[in-house]
Design brief:
alpha/beta, 377 residues, 10% strand, 2 domains, 13 helices, six-stranded mixed sheet
Length: 377
């Protein structure tokens, strides 16, 4: 094919690929799905990928390339060109590739089983557009202890893995309780568990101070939270088969939802924190991913309110309600109130700039917020 024809074909191919990317971006605005290339710097930082090894030139599968070092806005996740891509550069490479002219290897960074483009984003895009399965690349690998694959970059699973690793490192829970299974399906939630532990530590230490007992250190608080807060709730979740209503979720997901629900009940009705059984029972009355059950419960809640029966939460007996109100009136505070008091306490006890650095060894990580609204879909 003459050079002019190669050029014309390249321009037409670019136009088609650009249209595809525009349609994909439009659909992503409707679906909420992120179609951007993954940023190498963010992944390397979160996965603590530091050790660098030169791997030399090799053939790499195009479907294992998930991101870019610097051009992650110019192409989408499928390496379709966006408006920021250089049309002249793209069509020139396409014409050269189809006229069998030699092209230099691209440069890729590797983390786990995935790759990021250091140099050659347009070449990768053109190769994808021409239906190639592999591309020649000079590879530099960055080692990480967290295994990641292409599937982990769908719905931010890689980020959840990184946060899980951070949680284990900060709590040492796998050492303190080797049988513990803490798994979440949404990013940003492990920080909330850390807040739960810190609030539990605050409440236990307030009790210890009243009883002239020794305060809990951070890792003691982790073990105490797991034994006395987390597992009792998990046992109640299992007893009531709550996970059957949320087959795509984990026990820890549901634990966070119920913790949020329990806090809402405490604040709305002026109650002390509900026991695990009562918290789960009331949660089941108003939450379900099954449409029929949710509809029935909505009708029941509407009738409950219509007849002025809002004084007691659905799923809670009068005896349970009065017991929780009695504990609240006696001074037992909600977890949200405890967190606010702990926040004030931390500010008051903040060490001076010249304090001994060793004082912070047994301190918990500081993260904002307490319990967000549950995500049920």
């Amino acid at each position: 094919m003459p050079q002019q024809q190669h050029k014309a074909a390249a321009q037409e191919r670019f136009r088609r690929e650009l249209t595809k990317s525009q349609m994909a971006d439009l659909l992503s605005m409707i679906s909420g799905e992120n179609t951007d290339l993954v940023q190498f710097d963010e992944v390397a930082k979160r996965l603590k990928a530091r050790q660098r090894i030169e791997m030399g030139t090799q053939m790499v599968r195009l479907d294992q390339i998930v991101g870019s070092v610097g051009r992650y806005r110019d192409f989408n996740r499928e390496f379709l060109p966006r408006s920021g891509a250089d049309k002249g550069r793209w069509t020139q490479i396409d014409a050269m590739m189809n006229s069998l002219e030699g092209l230099p290897p691209v440069e890729l960074f590797k983390i786990g089983d995935v790759y990021f483009v250091r140099d050659g984003n347009h070449r990768v895009s053109v190769a994808q557009a021409n239906g190639l399965s592999h591309i020649e690349a000079y590879v530099t690998e960055y080692k990480t202890s967290i295994p990641v694959s292409v599937s982990d970059f769908e719905r931010d699973q890689w980020l959840i893995k990184a946060e899980h690793a951070d949680f284990k490192n900060q709590t040492k829970l796998n050492e303190l309780r080797p049988d513990a299974v803490i798994e979440l399906t949404e990013p940003g939630r492990y920080e909330i568990l850390l807040r739960h532990i810190e609030v539990h530590r605050y409440l236990r230490n307030e009790e210890s101070q009243r009883n002239n007992e020794e305060s809990l250190g951070w890792y003691e608080a982790v073990a105490s939270w797991y034994d006395n807060v987390y597992m009792p709730m998990i046992e109640a979740i299992r007893h009531y088969n709550v996970l059957d209503q949320f087959p795509e979720r984990t026990e820890t997901d549901v634990y966070l939802w119920i913790a949020h629900h329990r806090e809402q009940i405490s604040q709305r009705y002026g109650l002390a924190p509900l026991s695990p059984d009562v918290a789960v029972a009331t949660f089941r009355e108003v939450h379900s991913e099954r449409l029929l059950e949710r509809t029935v419960k909505s009708v029941r809640l509407g009738l409950h309110r219509a007849f002025g029966l809002t004084e007691t939460p659905l799923g809670m007996t009068e005896e349970e309600y009065l017991e929780a109100r009695k504990r609240h009136d006696a001074g037992e505070i909600s977890l949200g109130e405890a967190e606010e008091l702990n926040r004030e306490h931390v500010v008051e006890q903040a060490p001076a700039d010249d304090a001994d650095e060793t004082e912070a060894v047994d301190s918990p990580p500081q993260t904002p917020g307490f319990i967000p609204a549950p995500t049920e879909s």
